[in-house]
Write a structure and sequence with these properties.
Shape: globular
Largest sheet: 7 strands, mixed
Radius of gyration: 20 Å
Number of strands: 11
Structural class: mainly beta
Order of helices and strands: EEEEHEEHEHEEEE
Distance between the termini: 34 Å
Number of helices: 3
């Protein structure tokens, strides 16, 4: 947590070896997911593939950066179980973000998405929210949709590795501090007041659906 910059960064490794980073920029109301996915070298892919998904950060999704900075883990080696499992969210990422202009949306995009310059995605509904806040619309480009290309299939159904298709990528954040807990105390005069006395932890899964110019960029979608 960086309370000065009002942001939080969380990093985890998925069971398949992918490294996932979640950055919450409270100041700009932006959430950035970055996935570094191990490539399949024998199938012509590079060593790893990087993806960035950017969505609007809503209030009370995650605890404030100031509170996160004060957290201390008593037993760092303990495997934690989330108290609340929040439902799986399907996000249709129908807009591409221009990396060189992305700093206007959030200064963290430059560092977090550096390896994913050609694969930064967001949603039209989130773009509308940011445009109302005064963000420059020239950094966004609407991606082809099924309505534009009737032959566009989901990548898992596409047999030609060089055809465009709709890719799906899923990630699961097993444990993160999502809410503050408050306890009540009573003073000598009987007046009741509340104070922060801990955190509530959550687990949440996301599936992102987005356009790729060729199935070769979405080979993991065959195994699901």
């Amino acid at each position: 947590a960086d309370s000065g910059a009002d942001c939080i960064s969380l990093e985890l490794r998925e069971p398949d070896g992918a490294l996932v980073t979640l950055t919450a920029d409270f100041r700009q109301e932006v959430k950035i997911f970055r996935a570094l996915i191990l490539g399949e070298l024998e199938r012509g892919q590079s060593q790893f593939q990087a993806l960035c998904f950017i969505t609007r950060l809503h209030r009370n999704e995650i605890i404030p950066s100031e509170s996160m900075a004060k957290l201390r883990q008593k037993n760092p080696r303990t495997v934690r179980q989330a108290e609340e499992v929040r439902g799986l969210e399907h996000l249709h990422m129908d807009v591409a973000v221009n990396f060189s202009k992305g700093a206007q949306l959030s200064s963290h995009i430059h560092n977090v998405c550096a390896e994913a310059k050609e694969a930064i995605y967001t949603r039209e509904e989130d773009v509308k929210f940011w445009l109302e806040k005064g963000v420059d619309g020239s950094m966004f480009e609407v991606l082809p949709q099924t309505s534009d290309l009737p032959d566009l299939q989901r990548c898992k159904l596409c047999t030609d590795r060089w055809k465009p298709c709709i890719c799906s990528y899923s990630l699961n954040i097993e444990w993160y501090p999502c809410m503050l807990k408050y306890c009540k105390t009573r003073d000598a005069g009987g007046k009741v007041s509340s104070y922060k006395c801990g955190i509530r932890s959550c687990q949440k899964g996301y599936t992102f659906h987005y356009y790729v110019p060729q199935k070769q960029l979405c080979l993991w979608d065959e195994e699901t």
